[in-house]
């Protein structure tokens, strides 16, 4: 990342627990898990837009 922005994010407790479990199983921090999932979704969206 060239530049980072700090945000405050409010999540429902059950979603937080699920994300934390996913992060732990992937050996990532919660922040890294959220960033990873957002990047994957962004890349999939861009690929869909660019597909003929």
Description:
There is one protein chain. With 52 residues, the protein is an all-alpha fold. Helices cover 65% and strands 0% of the residues. It contains two helices and no strands. Helix 1 (13-25) crosses helix 2. The longest helix is centred in the last third of the chain and has 21 residues, at 30-50. It is extended. 0% of the residues are buried. The mean pLDDT is 93.
Secondary structure: elements and pairs:
Layout: H1 13-25, H2 30-50
Helix pairs in contact: 1-2
The beta-strand count equals: 0
Described by the principal axes of the CA atoms, the overall outline is: extended
The biggest sheet, with number of strands, parallel, antiparallel or mixed sense and barrel status, is: none
The poorly predicted ranges are none
Percent of residues in helices comes to 55-70%
Radius of gyration: 13 Å
Distance between the termini: 29 Å
By DSSP (H or I, 4+ residues per run), the number of helices equals 2
Summed up:
The protein has helices spanning 13-25, 30-50. It is mostly helical.
Keywords:
52 residues; mainly alpha; 2 helices; extended
């Amino acid at each position: 990342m060239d530049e980072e922005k700090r945000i405050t994010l409010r999540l429902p407790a059950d979603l937080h627990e699920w994300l934390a479990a996913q992060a732990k199983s992937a050996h990532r921090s919660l922040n890294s898990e959220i960033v990873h999932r957002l990047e994957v979704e962004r890349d999939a969206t861009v690929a869909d837009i660019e597909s003929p």
